[in-house]
TrEMBL record:
GO cellular component: ATP-binding cassette (ABC) transporter complex; periplasmic space
Organism: Oceanobacillus iheyensis (strain DSM 14371 / CIP 107618 / JCM 11309 / KCTC 3954 / HTE831)
Chief subcellular location: membrane
Region feature Disordered, mapped onto this chain: 27-52
Protein name (Swiss-Prot/TrEMBL): Oligopeptide ABC transporter oligopeptide-binding protein
Length: 541
């Protein structure tokens, strides 16, 4: 994963033209992520270079929103959860589904999947992992009283049958081929049944869903929860009783450091071992430091500007198209991200199943933008707000868009919100425009499109543009229910054409993710979904 200074600079310049999407992320995306244990044999061999033990400190931009896998759908939360919990399956660096708490699976018929479960696995509280636990976890996500933002991942499941202690069957409403990949998602992480029961008891006493799990997250993972000081840090400790080879570190701290330059300073002083993320503008400074390197990974992520289609004037497709055509995205990609990433034509990254390289986009065309604004009766412009969280790149992108739209007499007020409040208020539709990201963590277009644009998923689940289009809904439903891959591809191509007409977003780019990493850290990798792979990390003492 480590690149030399010279190699990295060459790679950054090369990415102005193209990028190979092979691994993962740079700032808080809204999309959730897969289980973290997709380590390769090569990673395990590399990790032997350092010694075991020690405490790894990760300086991260944003705090977790929730440590309950059913309680949030954002990357900062998933990055912590993925070390505490495990799912039935996991994905490797090539986005291929691999065994985890399930050892094998097969499709019994078009709508029935059977999974064989790993035996002898214990939760951190000493309770057993078995098929009853799996049933309880998935049923909890499906429970409307819980109100999980990750419901869309499993809402097609109609029946869960415990065949025996270590065999479980899922019957779906329709053929759903991506189910094994969906079960790799962190939303399908397994929580101790005892803690689930405690959480339900608390709900009966008036507590919020997930309150017990959030304060006492108990999984089967290679790290255990130690403590959480909200807004400051989360500390995990090694699970000595882990069912597989245990983690090599004694503990990991996710330390909230909101300022990018402060994260860089922490690298330099040794107060932190990893800066997650690293701004493209700070690459040169970090590369000049002794004992620190920069790592770069491609992704299946999208950065975008969303429009609240329930608010004027964004309820008019001509306005949404006009803003797409008014923005020169190269100013953002080259000027703010230093060319690191791939320009986005639509919501899907090239490595995602369903991506269509021939899909139309809304290209930069300022004259056409003016004509569309005139058609909408807004030739004299209007005033609006553009929200972002406190990621420096997102703030810079927002101010760039503000400046570009000023040329069209559109007065934009940029507002920066704290991460948790940002997610909550955009889910409630309090915004006009907003800057955010989404990671298609399953590698399948269903996750990259259904969550973002289906009317069933308005709010927390992902549809923060409040897209409600009956024709689009019908296409999305048909595509997820179609078992034939070629027909699914055709449907997703049609959906990408439809999205050009609806124009719910300004798609910016599929970002590459940069980390600043101390040379003391060995064996660190990321998936194309952004999650740090920490099980086999070692730290030179």
């Amino acid at each position: 994963m480590k690149l030399s200074k010279k190699s990295l600079l060459l790679l950054v310049f090369g990415l102005l033209l193209s990028v190979v999407l092979v691994a993962c992320a740079s700032e808080p995306d809204e999309g959730g992520n897969t289980d973290s244990s997709g380590d390769s044999d090569a990673d395990s061999e590399e990790s032997t270079e350092g010694g075991e033990g020690g405490e790894l400190v990760i300086a991260t931009l944003s705090d977790a929103v929730s440590l309950d896998p059913a309680g949030s759908n954002d990357v900062p939360s998933s990055n912590v959860q993925a070390n505490i919990f495990e799912s039935l399956t996991k994905q490797d660096a090539n986005m291929e589904v691999q065994p985890s708490l399930a050892t094998e699976w097969e499709a019994i018929d078009d709508t029935t999947w059977e999974f064989k479960l790993r035996e002898g696995v214990k939760f951190h509280d000493g309770s057993d992992f078995n098929a009853e636990v799996v049933k309880a976890n998935i049923e909890r996500i499906l429970d409307p009283d819980v109100g999980s933002p990750r419901l869309f991942l499993y809402e097609m499941i109609e029946e869960i049958e415990v065949v025996d202690d270590y065999t479980i069957r899922f019957t779906t409403e329709f053929p759903f081929s991506p189910l094994p990949a969906h079960l790799a998602h962190n939303g399908g992480a397994m929580v101790s049944l005892d803690v689930i029961n405690e959480d339900y008891a608390a709900m009966e006493n008036g507590e919020d869903p997930g309150s017990v799990i959030n304060n006492n997250p108990v999984g089967t993972g290679f790290f255990k929860f130690d403590k959480w000081d909200p807004g400051s840090q989360i500390r995990l400790v090694k699970n000595e009783e882990y069912w597989d080879e245990p983690a090599k570190l004694d503990s990991v701290v996710f330390k909230v450091v909101t300022e990018g330059l402060t994260r860089v300073a922490e690298l330099q002083t040794g107060d932190s071992h990893i800066s997650d993320p690293l701004s493209p503008n700070d690459v040169e400074q970090v590369e000049a430091m002794d004992g620190v390197s920069v790592t770069q990974q491609g992704s299946v992520s999208l950065s975008y500007v969303g429009f609240n289609m329930e608010k004027e004037p964004f309820d008019d497709p001509n306005v949404r198209k006009a803003i797409n055509m008014a923005i020169d995205k190269s100013q953002i990609i080259d000027g703010i991200y230093n060319g690191v990433g791939t320009p986005a034509i639509g919501p899907l990254a090239p490595d995602v199943f369903g991506y269509d390289e021939n899909a139309p986009g809304l290209e930069y065309d300022p004259e056409q933008a003016k004509e569309l604004l005139a058609e909408a009766g807004l030739e004299d412009g209007f005033s609006t707000t553009l929200w972002t969280n406190d990621s420096q790149e997102r703030v810079d992108a927002a101010t760039n868009i503000q400046a570009q739209l000023k040329e069209f007499n559109i007065d934009v007020d940029v507002q920066v919100l704290e991460w948790g409040a940002y997610l909550e208020q955009t889910a409630q539709g309090e915004h006009d425009m907003f800057v955010l990201g989404w990671s298609t963590v399953t590698g399948d277009a269903d996750y990259g499109l259904y969550a973002l644009f289906h009317s069933n998923n308005v709010g927390d689940a992902g549809n923060r543009t409040f897209t409600k289009d009956e024709e689009l809904d019908a296409l999305l439903d048909e595509a997820r229910q179609e078992p034939d891959p070629e027909t699914r591809q055709q449907l997703y191509s049609e959906i990408q054409v439809k999205l050009t007409e609806v124009a719910p977003m300004l798609y910016i780019h599929h970002q590459d993710f940069l980390l600043g990493v101390s040379d003391k850290v060995q064996g660190l990798t990321q998936l194309p979904t952004q999650i740090l792979q920490l099980k086999d990390v070692t730290l030179e003492q």
